[in-house]
């Protein structure tokens, strides 16, 4: 994975984390708002419930007072009192029995009696205060009445007056009234208990004037009415006024001294009075605020911790990425790029401009240097090499140490000469290393080089990385500073060699080796006198591999012995087929490698085969290379003697291709001499006729030795004429016929198709 990917993932992770954080924040805000709403609703509900309760209690108190008064009034009605003189006594008694502040009785005449702490005294109704007169007037009309609060001149305090009609024989004869001081509501409206202490409750008149203020008021300046600032800042008061006129419950909010307050107006149901409950939002919602604060705090805490974690995590990841990057991209010892980083960089650079060269640089016998100098010195050497390479690189070039002493270079040069000069300079500097205890040991290096294209192909980086190893292997072959360029042709050959060696056994088993035959022409008659068996490797895909591509390898690795025997058998099989079909079989010569001749049971196997196929052994000629005859001549002669005794014929192949010696002819007992096609070529091109003379001599000599001559490589009519003139016996070459498959040869020779 490259760095960009890691960074992108990191960015993604941060984005997700931030998004999650924001989500948490938004959720938190929504949660807080929801909580606030819920709490507000709950507080409103509580305010209403509590105020309702106070209203109920106020009403209860009034009802109670009225009830007491009614009782007193009914007692007065029931007693048979007519004389006005007895009123003071009766009223005095009633006053004694009740807790009213003052009591009074006013008959219809208006000559009433009043009882108070000062005693009982007569009083004209007209003398009494207006509020009393109103109550009496209303009570005389049959209703029980409660007055507004007013300042009593009689008791010298704020009071309210109740009135109850006194009936006698179904007729209202007068009115019993009583005053009570405002404090009767104190116990009820004790501010300390409102809303758990955060609220104040006051009593208002219908037009919003304060009748009673309980507890410490919120608004310190004693306002006469709630319709004064600070209770309302806008037109909301109009709505509130209207609702109060209609006796409706209503809500409003206001701010005072930087705090928010909620106000509730609850009609008492008496004289248009209202209970006015004011509650500090902050105080009553303290729990809510605390909850919101705590929740917010927790959220914020989580966010901060998450953010810190994120930063911490990012740092760790960055640090780790850096470390991993170093591990993943750099070589610890030299600080150079490592191989994977090198490949990545090379690929990136090649994508931009493909022209480049890849070099693999190696130190000769590094493992021994390691042993000789010790690890520390060897490490120093590697660093020195890395420095030398690094210093020689130009813009856009990179290098790496893959492992041990393997360095790769990506150069922007494609010209071989320039590359060679640069590498030689690098190697010179890199090998200029003073080692301790090295005793002047010479360090050498070698480089394999591949350029991004040659005259045939443009290579990919992968191909270049593979090819450079082949070049490096070649470069290793010399023990000096050496630069070797990848050669595609050579490589193709090496590839083929590798294929050949890797597939030979399987190919033999699969009968991929086929018998091809080339005619040898009797120059006297011009007819096919015999044929040469030539092997062809026909691969499964139908493509053909020629002997030149595999025989040298088989000779080297010993597989040739198997192939040669196999080919002898193929030839026996072929002759047998001809015989079976009633054709006059022509002799066939088979190429035999030097090694097969010296196989332990070679002769036995040949004779067994000839016997197996029941063919005359004289139909088989064994072609032996001249080279085989040069060494072990005696041993070879002995073999030949046995083979000849079995009826087989011996031919010496490719005479004149190597260090030919006429001596060989004398030393080896052969039946046929095949003159190499190079001989013919030379003779054909021969200006001063020397080769011709030699050929003439050879022909003459072979005749005398009773050896027939075959000239190979006859390609033209001129060649044919020349060998005839030279007195050769047989000719073989494309001029007469190319090597063809058994079937084709049979068809050509016998004029029939192969069965
Ligand atoms: P060789 O035994 O000297 O075979 C003659 C080679 O010359 C054949 O090549 C043939 O195709 C080629 N030739 C024939 N006429 C002409 C011509 O007019 N012009 C030219 N330029 N070439 C001509 P081929 O088949 O490629 O075989 C090459 C060599 O491989 C053979 O040379 C032989 O040494 C070896 N070889 C072939 N088959 C076998 C085999 O079964 N066993 C062994 N040990 N070697 C074999
Ligand atoms: Mg041959
Ligand atoms: Mg030959």
Give a structural overview:
The chain is α+β, with helices and mostly antiparallel strands. It contains 23 helices and 27 strands. Strands 18-19-21-22-23-24-25-26 form an eight-stranded mixed barrel, surrounded by five helices. Strands 1, 2, 3, 4, 5, 6 and 7 form a seven-stranded antiparallel beta sheet that branches. Helix 20 packs across helix 21. It is rod-shaped and about 200 Å long. 35% of the residues are buried. The model has no long low-confidence stretch (mean pLDDT 86). Bound molecules: ligand C2E and magnesium ion (2 copies).
Describe what is shown at a glance.
The protein is built from 23 helices and 27 strands. It has 755 residues and is an alpha+beta fold. The radius of gyration is 65 Å and the shape is rod-shaped.
